[in-house]
Amino acid sequence: MSWTSCGWPPYGRRMALATRDRRPPTVRTLWDSSVGKKTVMAVTGLIMLGYLVAHMAGNLKIFFGADEFNGYAHWLRHLGAPVLHSHWALWIVRVGLVVSVVLHGVCAFQLSRRDIKARPVRYAHTKARTSYATRTMRWGGVILALFVVWHLLDLTTLTVNENAQAGHPYENVVATFSTWYGNVVYIVAMLALGLHIRHGFWSAAQTLGVGSAARARLLKGAANLLAAGLTIGFISVPVAVMTGVVN
Amino acid sequence: MKLTLRVWRQKNADAPGAMAAYEVDGVSPDMSFLEMLDTLNEDLIVQGEDPVAFDHDCREGICGACSLVINGDAHGPERTTACQLHMRSFRDGDTIDVEPWRAAAFPVVRDLVVDRTALDRIIQSGGYVTAPTGSAPDAHAVAVPKPDADHAFVHAECIGCGACVAACPNGSASLFTAAKVNHLNVLPQGAPERESRVLDMVAQMDAEGFGGCTLAGECATACPKGIPLQAITTMNKEWLRAARTSKR
Ligand code: HEM
Ligand code: FES
């Protein structure tokens, strides 16, 4: 009797099970692995990306005037009513975003530190081409983290926004883009965002295992479209204020 | 051809190393890169100096022993192994930099020789199939669909040289590990360990101090056997499936 007649693969499967150690819970497996941490980055990145698409689309309401924009901002506070109390939906989104930003940042920091430690000695003969993606993702990410802090102080808490008035978002946006540094900060950050998403969206597809040769063009195209759409959409607001289209 | 070589010289794992320059004359364009180094070593021995230590074995591109970073490229400018690289890829009068694989997980043993046993330990952690011993099975006893067989063959080509690690800006062994996971996980013979294989091999890769994948793509460009970058995507997919479903 040959071994194949004793039933492959159940024969082997039984053997493997008998010797297998207990595995830790899935969350532990994810957090302890470089592939798992990348997965956390991909999922939190996609959550933030989804939020940004909605945010950008909402911003475009500024082109329909102060009443419509301020009305929209007011509506956001009552989103989900009457099921949800006022501001609840807003806070649910805020908590989700804070958790995403923190997890994304912590994983980026830990993975980057591992990557740098894994390559302690440089080659004497260096090539100019190496890792445009890796460099721009790290520095771009840091720029975005700093921008998020500035943006909250500027248009949410109004701490750094001179001439700002609570409850007048339209006028506050105009105030922000009436200063040169307001324009510089937002435009630089949105260009960094475009680059981050261009590599990040495609990257996330590979991390989550949905990329394939057949889908490569589709994914790259979607990454470019999202990156360009978000960057142009966001930047259109400061440009409109600068050129007087919005005032 | 007459060449100037700048070669990494390092007495042992603990000694500091440095690039040293040598002139090599009488190089034929038909020589392999390793034969050119043999010529240099013969000169060095005659002059009473230590020959340059480098790894090599088959010299026909199938064993994965040779491991030279030539002018910043793992295995040099052609898509092949250093032993199959010929001097006709260079010009008379060129200066060529020769360095060892660089990665924390690949400590230099001497000159251009690095310790690659970390890759062996990744294989030991799951790069095998559980097969009952005894007489050889009939070749066609287990049916394998043609596309699966092709997929397995593409990834079975890996010779474990470590060029992917040497080329990666993060010193990651993802392409190496992914090649074996793709090769065995697609086959019925690999099915019993499908989940434990990918979980254990990735865990071992992390434990050895290799970096993670940022999809820079340098590994697939350097690979002398053309293992595709897509292998890593499929490994991630297998890993996520295993992390979700693996029996506790
Ligand atoms: C808190 C500020 C941020 C930092 C410090 C940061 C940093 C990074 C870094 C270093 C990577 C590459 C990680 C690696 O491959 O090892 C990355 C990937 C990524 N980032 Fe960010 N980022 C930030 C904000 C954002 C935002 C606002 C988005 C939303 C669009 C985003 C979306 C992504 C995506 C989708 C990836 C790809 C994940 C993957 O490769 O699977 N990031 N980030
Ligand atoms: S010496 Fe065997 S592959 Fe180069």
From TrEMBL, chain B:
This protein's record includes keyword Repeat: no
PROSITE patterns documented for this protein: 2FE2S_FER_1, 2FE2S_FER_2, 4FE4S_FER_1, 4FE4S_FER_2
Cofactor: [3Fe-4S] cluster; [2Fe-2S] cluster
GO biological process terms, semicolon-separated: aerobic respiration; respiratory electron transport chain
Keywords for this protein: Iron, Iron-sulfur, Metal-binding
Boundaries of every 2Fe-2S ferredoxin-type domain copy: 1-102
Keyword Iron-sulfur on entry: yes
GO molecular function: 2 iron, 2 sulfur cluster binding; electron transfer activity; metal ion binding
Residue ranges occupied by any 4Fe-4S ferredoxin-type domain in the UniProt entry: 150-178
Pfam families according to UniProt: Fer2_3, Fer4_8
PANTHER family: SUCCINATE DEHYDROGENASE, SUCCINATE DEHYDROGENASE IRON-SULFUR PROTEIN
Protein family according to the UniProt entry: Belongs to the succinate dehydrogenase/fumarate reductase iron-sulfur protein family.
UniProt protein name: Succinate dehydrogenase/fumarate reductase iron-sulfur subunit
Species assigned in the record: Yinghuangia soli
